[in-house]
Write a structure and sequence with these properties.
6% strand, two-stranded antiparallel ribbon, mainly alpha, Rhomboid-like fold, single chain
Amino acid sequence: MNAPSRSWLVLCALHGVCSMLVWWAREGTVDALTWQADSWLRQPWTLWTSSWVHMNTPHLIGNQLALGALTALAWVMRPTLACALAWFLAWPLIQLSLLLWPQIGYAVGLSGLLHAGAAVMAVQLILKRIAVPKAPRWGALLALGLLVKLGVERGWAYPVVWDGGSEISVVQAAHLGGVLWGAVFGLALGRRVRRALPGPVRVLEHGGSSAPPTSA
């Protein structure tokens, strides 16, 4: 599970394609895919599908661009199967976390899930579970960015705010839940990647006898 895997990129492709398909779906279908705080027990699949629902064009484009950035990061960092599994497990729990705020009646969009993915990546880099140079430094920078964003938003106190630019209500609590669950599963899954050392080399002396193995 700690070898580089394409599973993260597969998840990114799934979210991108399904978001576009749901965007073109009929209104009744969209309603059936939207997570509602008071009816999700009757429609449990919405814990997953609500992430693919978007309120308007700016909402969709913004999330697709952020998804593209996360995909590009994964293309460079080559996360492991454990990373992808951590991201997958955080997915439905983000929606469930919103039940802590009674004022949230429903929530849609990829933003919470994207925050979870960034948190998973940050934790795995810090713990050297992704084999890239200076992994802890990159992970710390990513984690710092997330913490600053959460501190500015204060989603625990302001779970929902109005965004005049995109003309939608932003569920900031989903960002908070995404980072928390991403960090939890990022810590829980995977182990430190040890770089392969060069094997012992047999060096033949001029006389034909072999010297003891040496290592750099």
